[in-house]
Amino acid sequence: MDPGSRHDLLTVVVAAHDEVEALPLLHPRIRDALARVDGLRTRVLYVDDGSGDGTWEVLRGIAVADPQVALLRLSRNFGKEAALTAGLDRVTEGAAMILDADGQDPPELIPEFVARWREGWDDVYGTRVAREGEGWLKRATAAAFYRVMRRLSHTPVPADTGDYRLLSPRLLAALRELRERHRFMKGLFGWVGFNRIALPYRRAPRLAGRSKFGLWRLWNLALEGITSFSTAPLRVATYVGLFTALAAFVGGMTVVAKTLLWGDPVAGWPTMMVVILFLGGVQLIALGMIGEYLGRLYDEAKRRPIYLVDAWQPAAAGVSCPGQPSEGGGHAHGASTAGGQAG
Ligand code: UDP
Ligand code: MG
């Protein structure tokens, strides 16, 4: 049987960094949502991205109570993109559904994602119709970023779309081929292609805790996106240079003409300073742009692993039989505090 036409195994991948409070609230919701999908074996894979607040202990508790939970812990905080990569690398069979650990991506919609997957879509991505709990600045900068991205790059990165999506087995296989160190996941999902469809949803506020993506981190993520998927900024220097040279030529001709016709005395110290400073600035900006690419090239050349694994714990049950939910799985979240002793 063609493995691409099988729709019976789904792994929910959740990257978590310092999410002690949110995870115990989120897990029962994921379980309830998965219980509503027929004929599907399911797993939940939590990736602890170097948390320092007891997230791992909470996850151990969840796994003790729920045999369908697999756990992966990275050796330190590698960032969300690396954590997702680590999680998706472990989904070697079936499809993967990516969720945020903070409850902003409602697990209740999983059955709808699965329905689209069964219709034959490879990348079912959630598009935000509302961004509750996000300030105007974050919204405005996000909108500007997607506009720039669309102009500069041929890779489709749909606006108002995060990592909340379901990926088909063949898309996952393609994604695993991309081993670049600087990973802008939203761009990578678009780059691999296949069939994609949007699924609109309301983005909820965080269940607990604070966002790890402040403005500075988002700015760096935006730089990552642009430099990973476009070399257009490198061309800017060429055009600015051409334009400046043209202007200088025209300016030079006027100076010569004026001197020949009227014998103008030497003047214009201020204009000279302005021109020198302007050109100096433009050159530094161009150098900086080259530097952005050179630095990334350097990182890629070192070929360090994208992430390192500290602990891997596969789901105890492997996978559950369809239509026969494991006993007590959905009710045992009260045990999460006892999980600290489990390992
Ligand atoms: N996250 C992660 N590693 C990090 C930072 C964040 O795995 O270094 C996870 C985090 O636990 C959450 C998701 O990425 O599940 C999104 O993070 P956050 O909610 O802080 O970002 P926002 O939703 O505000 O964009
Ligand atoms: Mg969030």
Structure description:
The protein folds into 2 domains: 3-230 and 305-338, Alpha-Beta Complex (Spore Coat Polysaccharide Biosynthesis Protein SpsA, Chain A), CATH 3.90.550.10; 232-302. Helices cover 46% and strands 17% of the residues. With 343 residues, the protein is α/β, with parallel strands linked by helices. Mean pLDDT is 83; it is low at 319-343. Helix 1 links the parallel strand 1 (9-16) and strand 2 (41-48). It starts with 8 loop residues before the first strand and ends in a 30-residue tail after the last strand.
Labels describing this entry:
Spore Coat Polysaccharide Biosynthesis Protein SpsA, Chain A, 10 helices, 2 domains, binds magnesium ion, alpha/beta, disordered C terminus, binds uridine-5'-diphosphate, 343 residues
